[in-house]
Amino acid sequence: MIILGILVCIAPIGFFCWLLFTLALLTLPFVGASTGMWTMNSGTGWLGAIPVGALSAVFTIVAGQLLLGAVRRL
Q1: What is the pTM for the complete model shown?
Q2: How many structural domains does the chain have?
Q3: Segment 5-45, tens digit of pLDDT
Q4: Is residue 6 part of a domain?
Q5: E-state strands within 1-74
Q6: If DSSP codes are grouped into helix, strand and coil, which group holds residue 74?
Q7: Contact, 64 vs 24, CB < 8 A?
Q8: Is 50 inside a domain boundary?
Q9: Which of 8, 53, 62, 70 is the most buried (most CB within 10 A)?
Q10: Which residues, in sequence order, are CB contacts of 44 under 8 Å at separation 6+?
């Protein structure tokens, strides 16, 4: 019974770690692509859309790393 209780406590922690990792990997390309497409549709063309999409993707990953670093200290 004790082993079952330990597994029931550890399983959600593993699930949330997996979920955080998956969301971090999937968010970066989605934010960059959607910002690039929005910029392209606003009339800047592909020459302006590529740098804006890349910069937004970089900003997203940096903001995520800063937030994760701040959460670890608490």
Answers
A1: 0.62
A2: 1
A3: 888 888 889 898 888 888 777 777 788 889 999 999 999 89
A4: no
A5: none
A6: coil
A7: yes
A8: yes
A9: 53
A10: 52
